[in-house]
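Let's sit down with a protein and look at its sequence and fold side by side. We need material for that, and I hope you will provide a protein of your own picking. Once you have written the record down, we can walk along the chain together.

***
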Amino acid sequence: MDWKYLLFSFEGRINRKPFWLTLLALTVITMIVEYALFALFGVSMVPQIDPNAAPDAVQAAIAANTSKMLPIVGILSLLLLWPNLALYTKRWHDRNKSGWWTLILIVPFIGALWILIECGFLRGTPGPNRFGQDPLA
């Protein structure tokens, strides 16, 4: 299976193994890129705060650091949106459901739990379904 199909196509089905391995690869790549960009722009994951500083000064230091991190994280999130949607759509297809089920993430907590169980742990439908051949066949 090629990366172009896996990350950019919304057609077909994938089973759990490529789903988890691709999510792991995307997570590791994201962390490496984030740390590199944070270092490049001089942003610390844990800002240096004087333990004897006033609470207002501590809050200001954390806010300043966070405001530097948000654009970096936001841009990376937008860049990874399409590959993640493509990956989840193919996994939903393996469960014989529409990729629109990804919208269940809108429901707090329950949506993430639902996706974890459906896409991460349950086997796809055996044999061909309306989205294509069984990836395990």
The mean pLDDT is 89. The CA atoms of residues 105 and 112 lie 6 Å apart. The first helix runs from residue 3 to 8.
